[in-house]
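Here is one chain, start to finish.
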Amino acid sequence: MTRHGALVAGYAVLVLGAVLAPALAVRAAGGRGGVGIATDGDLVVVSGVVGLVAAAWACRRLLTHRRRGHAAADRWLAAVLALGVLAVGAAGLPALALHAAANLPATLTEQAWLAPTTWGAALVTATLAAAAADRGLLRWLTAGHPASRDARTERVRATSAGR
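Its structure:
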């Protein structure tokens, strides 16, 4: 495995950990507090699935940016920003969503599917925000480089010629 491949794999593990950590914290806090949460396993499963998809998507983004010829510093700066957005979003958005769901009518909050679905939707939102931050910063960083303008021009020409 190359050095770049090892860095990308390590980044994927960090992304998975950022998505999975809040669910593990809820599980541990519920166990320490003596509150048996029936759906805590569901939260971990939902977080694991979303985390695996987010990690694969993050790897793909990094590898795609490398193939497009973006500078390594630009790629990794955007990736670190995306990881920060993901970590904050994965911890904060599910908590806000579940807090808002607590004010719903009792007939709805008693449903077993509500907490895992709300948790998963919040994690997907955090993942999309991280991807948008990554893409936005990378575009901003490469907007002034002549090589990126030339590559964009070539893509536009190739797309126009294919019509």
